[in-house]
Amino acid sequence: ALLPPRSHQWRSVASVAASRSGTLQCAEEAQIAEAASPVVARPSITGAEYSRGLATVSFVTLLFASNSPVLRSAFTSVEHVPPPLLVNAVASGTALSGLIVGAPLLRGVPAPASIEASATSELNRESLRAGAELGLVKCVGTSFNLYGLSLTSADHGAFLIQLTTLLVPVAQAFQGVPIPPRIWAAVGTALVGLAIFTADPSDAAASLTGDASCVAAALCYALYDLRLFVWGKRVTPLRLIQNKVAAQAALAVTAVPLLAYADARQFVESVTPSDLVALAPLVLWSGIVVNGVAPFLQVGGQQAVGPARAQVVYASGPLWAALLSLAVLGETIGPQGLLGGAAFLAAVLLAAGTPAPDPACEEEVCEV
Predict the structure, then answer these.
(1) What is the pTM for the complete model shown?
(2) Does pLDDT of 33 surpass 70?
(3) DSSP letter (8 states) at residue 360
């Protein structure tokens, strides 16, 4: 009497078994779903990698700084001056050749930890799109840069181009990225130095048209740095820069017959062997080192440091460009220019002492 009927016992056992079976089935389905759905973990930048990235960005800054006096020398040291678009085309083609030849060496450079696990190294639609976008922006920016340097002094142009120091952090802030107060202080200090240096009355070689062209270049370079940070997570560095330089070279070469055919033809017909001897090392340096190796190193360094912090280090570029211009071209700096340069150094030191970005910040969008 204490036991239920046998039929009830079997129904009870069957229901328990079915319940357990359903629970196991749900657990298995949950495990399968969890395995199937990718878990995106925010990569962590170690202190050592951050320091290495800061050193890389500093080295890249020196390489970029050398470009202004080198290109300015190409427009002032020869009897027959090449058109800026022709210089851009030759330098871009040289950069592409250097990246292709030096690819085995560059593959040995370790990839940044912040790169996504699914980042592509193949020549596919995504990497081609990344290269085309970055190549277009860089080609336009370089064209403005070259035109500006053909009209103004190397150190003046370099400081104006460094307006990216302000543009990149402001753009990131508008995107909701939290920028540390110390970085904002460094940006402000760098801009004060920029204003003081630009207003130096001893720089008589400056021109309004050249200055405007350099400002346009700064806008392009700021956009390039922001998009490089995005694409640098999704495409491996060597593939990204090879595609970018290939697109840049194709656009630069196409622009010559469309926009500078008469000037290019006149230069080719009148150039002398001594002009070519003087221009060759300048174009090779600008092409292989500045437009090839430096952008490749920039990908890893900027991924570790972050675009906003990198801009403060880049801000020291005009100071090094001014020193190189003094040594190579004889361009002098007055007391006001020295004061502006000192402000830039203070900004770099301020940024260098800022702790590494926190990938686990409590904001919706973290800096890195």
Answers:
(1) 0.68
(2) no
(3) T
